[in-house]
Amino acid sequence: MHKGVEVEPETHRKERSVTALVPMKGHSARVPNKNLRPFCGKPLCHWTILSLQKSRYVEDIVVNTDSQEIAENIRQSFDRVKIIDRPSEIRGDFVSMNTIIAHDLSQSPGKHFLQTHSTNPLLNAETIDAAIELYFHNLEMYDSLFTVTRHNARFYWSDGSPINHNPQEMLRTQDLPPIFEENSNLYVFSRESFKRSGNRRIGLRPYLFEISKLEAIDIDEEDDFLLAELICQAKVSK
Q: Mean pLDDT across the chain, nearest whole number?
């Protein structure tokens, strides 16, 4: 969706490097053991790390997990991936991701960070690099970046009242003002913006980075897993 900016010379690449944070939880109620479940021939959690390793700008990869099984799998499968054992006080299904990120920042050097999920297996290195390039190119105007999915459709509140359209006008859906969904695929921010926003990965002046609906699939339900794997298989077959 975004072409990004012209790639910086190699001498500047280090100045634009980021540390990638990838939280991985062992328990999953809706898709059991999904991080280690086979996905297109590899454990699901491998795909995101492989894309991060292909990035020009990802200097370090940090996996925060509460699962010894996941930790051991990552250690055996990848070099130069740091494992953070998630403390018991920030484990569980109701702990904010920002709380986990705050802990990761306390354990990691660096100024700029990228956070993504192992449940985004279709996110590719080209998109990661384009997001990082735009983040650094626009730092004077925006303090952070997060990925979104555009929706041109008629939306309603639960009481039936319209959100983004006038039912009396019936504009074509492509002419409606778009609504952007935070798709939880990618966040880029600095240590400073995280602190200034009250320990939030989305800063006070974020850039909305649009990516395609297919690449943005986040595996929360069994149907998400099946759909993402079909798309992955189609890409691999090409």
A: 92
